[in-house]
């Protein structure tokens, strides 16, 4: 509490000093006692003796020149100094692609070119001494090009030094989560662009039914079905969980083991929040061999600089992740287009 014009507290403290000068009590002890009494009066809402009623100040009736200031030990008053060091970070549903794909760990960010066969060679059975007819596959390539996902955060040196709520670890985790969400969204878009159109739903309403999913499965070649799995939008998962047989029994098979996915029609199901919620003509369901999607990634980089913002006495925290995927075999993954209703 301060008063630039020499008001109540100033006069009260001056009066205390004058009284102490003529007292036989220890100067230090008496000063501490009397000054504490002044601030206790402010804290409890009482009046400073012979001067001013502090409830009036709280009600906005402070004399001209009064000023109330909140003093914090950190520059960011939104973070209390007694906040638990057990950091609670709100969770998000992340993309499944890193867990399902074939991941190549690279040492540089150059694209990796993956061979792609668009036409198989023909095999012949010529007789003895008969020339073999030439037949070459049609080869092309696709590039898995790592994109750079970056996050940069500034915090004050005071906050870093005081280690408020383990702030450095907290910022790193927040940046990592944000990068993961951005990467997952980009990969889902890329998968949909590279996958095969598995047809438009016509056998169920609204948008698709169980028979449409069965068609999507059995339109895939046997090798893809043997290792096949579903990737579904959150809304598609909700819809699929409601499918029942003629006896009213749910067809969804919940996992009995922690960490294992639920199943539908015998195939594991993974949720991708970046796929569109089922609606007219959306692509909300994928089926196939998800390991056919190939991702090249570089190690996650974290860097901290105390010199970049030297003049403002701040710490810069940077996180960079470089990754990108491609699909050499377009037939391996197919999407279902919801009915156009």
Overall number of strands: 15
Count of runs of 4 or more consecutive helical residues:
9
Distance from N terminus to C terminus (CA atoms, Å) equals: 67 Å
Mean pLDDT: 80
Secondary structure: helix percent: 25-40%
Which sequence of strands runs across the widest sheet?
A: 7-15-11-8-10-9
Content-based structural category: alpha+beta
Largest sheet: 6 strands, mixed
Runs in which pLDDT lies below 50 for 5 or more consecutive residues are: 1-6, 48-54, 60-77, 79-86
What's the assembly state of these chains? single chain
Instruction: Specify Rg, calculated over alpha carbons.
Output: 34 Å
- The backbone outline, from C-alpha atoms, is flat
Question: Could you explain the architecture of this structure?
Answer:
The protein is α+β, with helices and mostly antiparallel strands and 341 residues long. 29% of the residues lie in helices and 25% in strands. β13 (301-309) and β14 (314-326) form a beta hairpin. It is flat, with a radius of gyration of 34 Å. Mean pLDDT is 80; it is low at 1-6, 48-54, 60-77 and 79-86.
Task: Provide the descriptors you would attach to this structure in a database record.
341 residues; 9 helices; 29% helix; flat; disordered N terminus
């Amino acid at each position: 509490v301060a008063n630039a014009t020499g008001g109540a507290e100033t006069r009260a403290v001056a009066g205390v000093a004058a009284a102490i000068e003529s007292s036989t009590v220890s100067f230090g002890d008496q000063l501490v006692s009397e000054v504490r009494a002044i601030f206790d009066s402010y804290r409890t809402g009482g009046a400073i003796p012979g001067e001013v009623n502090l409830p009036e100040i709280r009600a906005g009736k402070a004399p001209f020149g009064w000023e109330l200031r909140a003093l914090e030990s950190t520059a960011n008053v939104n973070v209390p100094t007694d906040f638990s060091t057990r950091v609670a970070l709100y969770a998000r549903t992340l993309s499944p692609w890193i867990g399902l794909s074939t991941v190549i760990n690279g040492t540089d960010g150059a694209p990796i070119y993956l061979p792609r066969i668009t036409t198989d060679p023909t095999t012949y059975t010529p007789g003895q001494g008969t020339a073999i007819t030439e037949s070459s596959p049609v080869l092309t390539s696709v590039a898995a090009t790592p994109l750079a996902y970056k996050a940069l955060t500034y915090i004050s040196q005071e906050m870093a030094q005081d280690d408020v709520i383990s702030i450095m670890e907290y910022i790193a985790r927040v940046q990592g989560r944000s990068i993961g969400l951005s990467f997952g969204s980009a990969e889902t878009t890329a998968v949909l662009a590279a996958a095969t159109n598995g047809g438009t739903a016509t056998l169920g309403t609204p948008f698709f039914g169980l028979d449409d999913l069965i068609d999507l499965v059995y339109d895939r070649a046997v090798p893809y079905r043997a290792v096949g799995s579903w990737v579904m939008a959150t809304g598609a998962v909700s819809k699929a969980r409601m499918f029942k047989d003629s006896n009213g029994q749910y067809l969804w098979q919940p996992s009995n083991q922690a960490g294992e996915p639920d199943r539908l029609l015998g195939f594991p199901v993974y949720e991708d929040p970046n796929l569109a919620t089922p609606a007219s003509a959306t692509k909300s369901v994928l089926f196939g061999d998800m390991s056919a999607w190939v991702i090249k990634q570089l190690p996650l980089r974290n860097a901290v600089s105390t010199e970049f913002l030297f003049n403002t006495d701040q710490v810069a925290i940077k996180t960079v992740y470089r990754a990108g995927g491609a699909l050499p075999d377009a037939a391996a993954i197919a999407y279902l287009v919801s009915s156009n209703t």
